[in-house]
Amino acid sequence: MAQNDLEARHLDTLDRDLGRFSALENATAYVARPLVAPGVALAFVLLAGLGAMVAFGQTDNTLIVVVAAIFGAYMALNIGANDVANNMGPAVGANALTMGGAIAIAAVFETAGALIAGGDVVSTISRGIIDPQTIGTDGIFVWAMMAALLSSALWVNLATWIGAPVSTTHSIVGGVMGAGIAAAGFGAVNWPTMATIAASWVISPVLGGLIAAAFLWFIKARIIYRDDKIAAARVWVPVLIGIMAGAFAAYLALKGLSRIIDVTFSGALMIGAVLGLVCWIVMIPVIRRQSRGLENRNKSLKVLFGIPLVVSAALLSFAHGANDVANAVGPLAAIVQALGSGGTAEAVAIPLWVMLIGAFGLSFGLFLFGPKLIRMVGSQITKLNPMRAYCVSLSAALTVILASWLGLPVSSTHIAVGAIFGVGFFREWDAARRARAVQGQAPERPRTAPEERRRRKLVRRSHVLTIGAAWVVTVPAAAALSGALFWALRAIGG
Q1: Shared-domain flag, residues 137 and 22
Q2: Mean per-residue pLDDT pooled into runs of 10, the chain (494 residues)
Q3: How buried is residue 347: exposed, middle or buried, by Cβ count under 10 Å (0-12/13-18/19+)?
Q4: Are residues 44 and 13 part of one domain?
Q5: What is the value of pTM for the model shown?
Q6: Do residue 329 and residue 476 come from a single domain?
Q7: Is residue 119 within 8 Å of 330, Cβ to Cβ?
């Protein structure tokens, strides 16, 4: 009897949780109606400007800071609408999360990542791309940062409106570079830093694809292709969850605890290893209970990968918040510093209110404009199930976390899309390999015609060209727009 009462209470709790997610989905559908979402976004942008006025205080430069805060909030909304879809798209496409659940998780972890671990990359955006000392006066530097913010926000807004998968990181880096060139010539740009960033744009999608493909190969070899799939999953799924927990714990120790106590890299790795081991041990009985009564087939494995997929999506949202908050508030932090007491020569101090604008802007942008792009990322490049989506999310999370730890503003769009392509191309290679093995065992079977092989491709080739073209054009387009806006703003401001 007591057991039945306990189960009834668990069911009631589950019903309430599902009801909350259902209400969130209904609210998301409501704000997606014409004019409602733009109206809410406008209110947030104006509120950010009001908050900046209160936080900065009444000085001769308050109006400029308010306008910069409005631009930063506008940029953060666009990042949330565009980039956050890359984090939750795989989980939603694999039916492991509802749209409401994805938005709730992303909002919490994006905000946490931005506030806890966003500082290093903000410093790279605000000071690493152009040298403030080469620009001249603080006033010219401020107009350059304003132009960079507005140009990148306008470009991402345009690209999102027409459905082009551009990188918000490309946009802000191109905007800062273009404004710096317009203000002080090509000598203002830190070209070694730009070369490092440009190299990361090539390395990050390739690395994301390779890591995702490697995880998928491991899952196929150790679980899917085994005679007893359920028994293999009981062994390896807890290990995979432990890997995620360890990576997250090590990164959080480096970023969060380092602001309180001195944590070395080896110490962070030790913390990650211990917590990863604990999580692995804890998950063994959980996965064992989940697997009871499941049939020995691939469809049953989707149930067991639900937990690691949700955890990896949350981890990726945390990493994205840490990395891409810089795109919204890096130039804003530099403006506040230049117009405050520090000037452009001092190290950039990032006020809490500046980080709050970026953090909440990411979440608002996702909630207001993200569902359509989430569906596109989750289903239109290649077909995803929970195992493939887990590989994409974990690969992207590990790559973005590494980049954020190094202070390198890589593109989360590149990494996530590269991971999706890596999974798709690995599936194609693996399917072709298995088909050749079957034909080798039965040589009398007719070979597949080239046209039929092209039709069976598991990755949509049109998306490769579209995404590649969008990546190439973003930096020069944002730079050109930023340069033009710099001259216009300077003429207006005097």
Answers
A1: no
A2: 52 54 58 69 90 82 88 88 75 79 83 73 65 73 87 86 73 88 84 78 82 90 89 90 82 63 77 91 91 84 81 78 75 80 57 85 82 66 78 77 65 78 84 76 53 52 69 86 91 73
A3: exposed
A4: no
A5: 0.75
A6: yes
A7: no
